[in-house]
Amino acid sequence: MEGAISSRPNKRIAVVTGGNKGIGFEVCRQLARDGGVTVVLTARDETRGAGAAEKLRALGVTDVVFHQLDITDASSIATLVDFLEARFGKLDILVNNAGVGGVEYPQELDANDEKVSSLHQFAGLDSNQRLEWMVKNVREPIDAARKAVETNYYGTKHVTQALLPLLLQSSSQGRIVNVSSEYGLLRLIRNEEVRRDLNDIHNLTEERLDEVLDKFLQDFEADALEAHGWPTGFSAYKVAMAATNAYTRILARRHPTLRVNCAHPGYVKTDMSMGSGVLTPEEGARGVVKVALLLDGGPTGKYFTKGEEASFV
Ligand SMILES: NC(=O)c1ccc[n+]([C@@H]2O[C@H](COP(=O)([O-])OP(=O)(O)OC[C@H]3O[C@@H](n4cnc5c(N)ncnc54)[C@H](OP(=O)(O)O)[C@@H]3O)[C@@H](O)[C@H]2O)c1
């Protein structure tokens, strides 16, 4: 599972979730290559994760070690914590990148299938047209919605909670970067009470976030999304991302010695976007890495889009 790495005593240690492909893979590559960071590339699948770490080493990026992590599995999280404690005794950077789309992709358009790129010409379409195409070509069953909430919000939160003690051991200010999305912006939620509560950062609690997500899933099941002002089109993804953004702000408030931020990578060509994005994974990862490497004393509790600070709303 693990690989050989040169661990110099003062090198920073980063964990990246969902590091086997897409933006996560590129974040691992750039952090290790340009950031001078020892990267623990994690993935839920041993073969895919070990293969990705091997690929990086073959590219000359040697300060990478693989460890299995399914962010929705408590025992998998605990095993990672044990490994980090024993091997490094601290963590400097956590990039919560792993996520799912909260939709069912049509089989014939499976993004792992090379047919996608030849079947659909995105050239000539702007981002909105590409996103519209995506919405038309996916289904949003309740199981996929639950999975998005479970993975993108609760998985991120559980990994973060488990790794907080190690981040607090960092001699620089421990960094948490939640890879987020402009789909999590509050303006997409028409329900005024929800929008107001998620933005009321001085009073917002994790319990309120649980209530919001429970109510969202109830409304989803009751086919009452529009009626109750929830976003539609990648609905669960949008709500889970809004919750993750809000959680980021709660954490930043609670842990002023850490730097806790969200980073939207832009619209990136990956499996999640069925290759429809306008940026390469390398370009998308750049903004995420920039936030991960912000200097001590830098911003915390903020949202960044493509590396630049922007509004949560
Ligand atoms: N692509 C975009 O345009 C875009 C835009 C805004 C934000 N984002 C965000 O960027 C992040 C990366 O997305 P991507 O576009 O690179 O998608 P991707 O290529 O589909 O990669 C998603 C990664 O998450 C992993 N993952 C999913 N569920 C997991 C779990 N339970 N435990 C551990 N790993 C899990 C996947 O592992 P497997 O390979 O095992 O499935 C994969 O490594 C996501 O958080 C996404 O929401 C993407």
TrEMBL record:
UniProt keywords (A-Z) are: NADP, Oxidoreductase
GO CC: one term? membrane
The entry lists its GO molecular-function terms as: oxidoreductase activity
| Top-level taxon of origin | Eukaryota
Against Pfam families, the record matches this protein to:
adh_short (PF00106)
Q: Oxidoreductase: present as a keyword of the record?
A: yes
Q: Which PANTHER family match?
A: (+)-NEOMENTHOL DEHYDROGENASE, SHORT-CHAIN DEHYDROGENASE_REDUCTASE
Family the entry assigns:
Belongs to the short-chain dehydrogenases/reductases (SDR) family.
What is the name of the protein in this document?
(+)-neomenthol dehydrogenase
